[in-house]
Amino acid sequence: METVGVLLALVGMVAFVIGAVCVVYPIRRLRVSNRRIAAGVLLAGVVLFAVGGALLPPSSRTSGGTVAASPTATQVATNVPVSQATSVPNANGSASPSAGNATGNIDTGSRPGVPMPDPRLTPGDTFTVTVTQICVSGYSASVRDVPDSEKTQVYAQYGITSHPTGAYEIDHLIPLEIGGSNDIRNLWPQPEQGDAGSLVKDKLENKLHALVCAGQLDLAVAQREIAGDWYSAYLRYVLNTNAPSAAGSPGPVAATSAPLNVPTALPTPTDAAPTATQTAVAPAATAAPAPSQNVVTAGAFCSPGGATGVTKTGLQMVCTTSATDSRNRWRQP
Description:
It is built from 10 helices and 9 strands. The chain is of the alpha+beta class. The N and C termini lie far apart (82 Å). A hairpin with a 5-residue loop joins β7 and β8. A 3-stranded antiparallel sheet has the order 7-8-9, with no helix packed on it. A two-stranded antiparallel sheet has the order 1-2. Helices cover 33% and strands 9% of the residues. It folds into 3 domains: 2-79; 104-255, no CATH class; 285-333, no CATH class.
């Protein structure tokens, strides 16, 4: 009916113009030499225009009473995007559009343009590991285990039924290199492109790993920072911007069984005293080393074997080898 209304309105408009001209100046070539006939054509044009306008829905009419052309099917498909393009600040402070999800429900939280996992589906999950373990070269590759079936399950729970190749990667919210696990509670489909895509988060993951292994950042703190609001952590640790977290202060990070199937949990804010295992995961803050102590950097080469020292945060270190590395490095005893 909308199409018929548009056609009637257009025909009526043409008839109205011809009739109006012929009333003033009869056009013999159009065989409208009589002003009465011209007046009839004019009246017919008015009627057709009115009928056509009545057949149109109210949304297709302008406030001035004229009829707006109906959009074609192609225009409708083009003008209704599945996801809205947004802008986020890049490293230079300018804004550029970010890659939104083609389908599904990737959240942008309270920071527009920054894809965030749904905390109900991906709260973050960790193995029970020590700083010494994660700082050994090749650790991440040795524990990575996300089969295709699990990736399919992650896409399904986020409502993503199809996507072009390269649109997403199944990301570890808490990366393996700082103790994250392969549990589905630690996995989410992160868009690859954009100023807040997976490549940007990779920079943060590498930075946090370096800080933890250098003894400059507590492992549990690094895990909570990236699980609570990874983009705020990126601004703080990579771009050195003291931006407040958009998600507020993150809560404790859940833990699952370690690769050796030893079930443990990271410490939670309760009144109960932490167990020995929990203390190993998130050691309590210790006093800074006295000036007379040997201040060292965790993981750095050292000599002679058996020498001792402490990091800037007070962690005890021993110059020794490991089962996988025959070179002397500063390691936790």
